[in-house]
Amino acid sequence: MTRPSAGDRTPLVFLTPPYDLWGKLWCTDAAAPTAPRTAPVDQRGQLIAALRNGLRTRHFSPRTERAYVGWLGRFLESLPREVTPQDAQAAHARSFLCQLALEHRVAASTQNQAQSALAFLFGQVLHRPLTGREAIKRAKAASRVPELLTRAEVAAILGHLAEPVRLMASLLYGSGLRVQECCRLRVKDLDFQRRRLSVHNGKGDKDRVTLLPARLMEPLTQHLRRLRDQHIRDLAQGRGEVLLDDLPQPSFAPSSAWGNQWVFPAERHHLDPASGRRHRHHVHESVLQNAFRGAVRASGVTKYATCHSLRHSFAAHLADAGYHVRAIQELLGHKDLSTTLIYTHGRQAALTTRSPLDVPGGLSTRPGPVPK
Fold first, then answer.
1. What is the C-alpha to C-alpha distance for residues 246 and 190, in angstroms, rounded to an integer?
2. Is residue 139 part of a domain?
3. pTM, whole model, 2 decimals?
4. Which of 105, 134, 163 is the last residue of a domain?
5. Which of 81, 158, 184, 309 is 20 to 30 A from residue 333's alpha carbon, by CA?
6. What percent of the chain has pLDDT over 70?
7. Residues 86-118: b if buried by 16+ CB within 10 A, e if exposed
8. Which of 114, 134, 154 is the last residue of a domain?
9. Cα–Cα–Cα angle for 197, 199, 204, rounded to 5 degrees
10. 166, 186, 280, 334: which one is catalytic?
11. Is 56 a catalytic residue?
């Protein structure tokens, strides 16, 4: 990129360390920072409503919608006072992303998410796409090696979990599920006869079929037996219905049917504001995440392990057992094989490659005279 001329540069002053050592940071086409402002309520509300409509029309996930609306709010607060939300330009978006990277020191993935939200705002809502000279380059994301757990470490962590969280973590490792996929399992998704587990509306709104471990058949049967008794009590109280919004197609069974119930329901009933009825939602993801974090500390595992590490370990241990990477890709639900190779390729190289120190006739590690 060529250095802008003096007439095209506007100074941005960052007083927070370590940027005060630079004095001034020059950003092309960026306006000088001003005091944050809040957009008028009517304009802000109209823009947020238009953003939501555009996202829902294109079938973006609810999580993406919440993230984009959040970034829109932060972007509007960063605009100068004299600029209305509808008059925002690419220079304001570029200045906002610079502020995220340099002042707030966000990760590259966070910055790219904010950029995607602004690109959707300008392209689909304001109809001024950030292309050509107005395009904003994405931040270079760091390449990280996934944290893998050994079988002994997985057993130690599971041993410090109580039911039903232990059963949920066992499914993450034994079936390669994501946390959200495990929380949103329904009774009809479990096929005990064929030992199959169906995942609906997974990441990217995709369905897939994965393994149902034989070791979990009996614990799951006992767990469902207790849930069946709880469901009968809920039906007697008029609270046995569940939401069916996440199903891939309209369900022919009523919302109170046993097959539509959550495998891991919440302890308390939830009031649906739309219908005014009380029902059970599925357990929140934070319940599993917080319990797993405590189990890692209690087990003495020194690795930075999260719930997603169980999914990584599922793929790595299948690769160690000799399963083909294509089969692992199908079980994980990856669209691109390169994503699966991140879990398995380095693992295979580490298992088949010998260190030069271990090669017969290699270097001696004993102290001796230095050759002249």
1. 17
2. no
3. 0.71
4. 134
5. 158
6. 77
7. eebbbebbbbbbbbbebeeebeeebbbbbbebb
8. 134
9. 155
10. 334
11. no
Q: Which helix (H) or strand (E) holds 123?
A: none
Token duo for residue 73:
């709010």
Q: In this predicted model, which residue has the larger pLDDT, 156 or 36?
A: 156
Known catalytic residue: 308? Answer: yes
Structure token digits, residue 97: 């992303």
Pair 224, 187: CB distance under 8 Å: yes
215, part of any domain: yes
358 within some domain: no
Examine the residue annotation and report whether 178 is marked as an active-site residue of this protein: yes
| Segment 289-330, tens digit of pLDDT | 999 999 999 999 999 999 999 999 999 899 888 888 888 889
59 catalytically annotated: no
Partners of 196 in the β-ladder:
191, 211
- Tokens read off for 33: 């920072």
Residues facing 271 on adjacent strands: 278
Distance CA 21, CA 116 (A): 31
Handedness of CA 269, 204, 109, 302 (dihedral sign): positive
Pairing assessment for the beta strands 25-28 and 190-191 based on DSSP bridges:
unpaired
Which helix (H) or strand (E) segment holds residue 59: the answer is: none
Q: Active site residue: 9, 74, 203, 223, which one?
A: 203
Catalytic residue among 92, 311, 312, 347: 311
The 8-class DSSP code of residue 147 comes to: P
Please provide residue 267's backbone torsions phi and psi, each rounded to the nearest 5 degrees. Answer: -75, -35
Of 107 and 247, the structure prediction assigns the larger pLDDT to 107
Give residue 290's pLDDT.
95
Tens digits of residue pLDDT in 60-97? 888 899 999 999 999 998 888 888 888 888 888 888 98
Tell me, yes or no, if 347 is annotated catalytic.
no
Token code pair at residue 304: 């930075």
Would you state the pLDDT for residue 283?
92
CATH of the domain at 51: 1.10.150.130
198 with 257: CB under 8 angstroms? no
Q: Are 212 and 306 within one domain?
A: yes
Quick one: pLDDT at residue 40? Answer: 54
Cα distances (Å, whole numbers) of residue 147 to 154, 268, 302, 327, 334 = 12, 34, 11, 21, 18
Q: How many residues does the chain have?
A: 372
Q: Name the domain count of the chain.
A: 2
